[in-house]
Design a protein that fits this description.
Phosphoribosylaminoimidazole-succinocarboxamide synthase, D-amino Acid Aminotransferase, Chain A, domain 1, SAICAR_synt_PurC, single chain, ATP binding, globular, alpha+beta, ATP-binding
Length: 253
């Protein structure tokens, strides 16, 4: 389909006006960033993999009654999604200690947490997406008390679904982040899962070896990012044949 007016360009995706009111075309780029975009590469094929994988997870959530913005995949790099008013929070669900949680609390990486822990970060690249509490969220009006109840419910349902899907193919869901948006139906508002769910937004470890199959491969220089993402897609049975060129990443200075 012909692209329309660009609405927004982020680090990993570009958004365009959709063909119908209330829709958006979401284009997945090959850009990889880490450490608040201090480290950057263009990794050929990454956008294709994230598009296919996000479709798989979002459609799976839709199928079990967890509302998302996903409508359909349009081609190898684009999908049609429902427009939503994004709540300015990253919702992080942690099942095991890793990343910033390990550093903040001195926890051994890989330690299973007593229960899933939900954290919130304020979406602001200039500030480094700082960790915030429900007190901050209420005080600054980013979400209501009812919104927060709904966000927690959505996050835990996503966690249950994703944990089960990953476990079935020998992958541990260490943690993940989602974004949530508001949609309006007449006088009523409801919250839906938005943005994407992909190895860019999850920590995924092989159950037997703890091999990293997520963006930590890029953050920590552990090998080929496309190889890692392709392995996730292969295990899930969604790897598109011949769709991921295994070219050498091009460094952006």
């Amino acid at each position: 389909m012909a692209r329309r007016k660009k609405i927004y360009e982020g680090k990993a995706k570009t958004l365009y006006e959709g063909p119908e009111p209330g829709t958006i075309v979401q284009y997945f780029k090959d850009d990889a960033t880490a450490f608040n975009a201090e480290k950057r590469d263009v990794i050929e094929g990454k956008g294709v993999l994230n598009n296919i994988l996000s479709e798989y997870f979002m459609q799976g959530l839709n199928d079990i009654g967890v509302p998302t913005h996903f409508l359909k995949r349009l081609n190898m790099r684009e999908q049609l999604v429902r427009a939503a008013e994004i709540i300015p929070l990253e919702i992080i669900v942690r099942n095991y200690a890793a990343g910033s949680l390990s550093k903040r609390l001195g926890l051994e990486e890989g330690m299973r947490l007593p229960r899933p822990i939900i954290e919130y970060c304020y979406k602001d690249d200039a500030l480094g997406d700082p960790l915030v509490s429900e007190e901050h969220i209420a005080a600054f009006g980013w979400a209501t008390s009812q919104d927060m109840d709904d966000i927690v419910s959505l996050a835990l349902r996503v966690n249950d679904f994703m944990s089960g899907v990953m476990k079935a193919v020998g992958i541990r869901l260490v943690d993940f982040k989602i974004e949530v948006g508001r949609v309006y139906e007449g006088d009523f508002q409801r919250l839906i899962v938005a943005d994407e769910i992909s190895p860019d937004s999850c920590r995924l470890w092989d159950v037997e070896t703890n091999q990293k199959l997520d963006k930590d491969v890029f953050r920590r220089d552990l090998g080929s990012l496309t190889d890692a993402y392709s392995e996730v897609a292969r295990r899930l049975g969604v790897l598109p044949k011949g769709a991921v060129p295994m070219a050498k990443p091009t460094l952006i200075n």
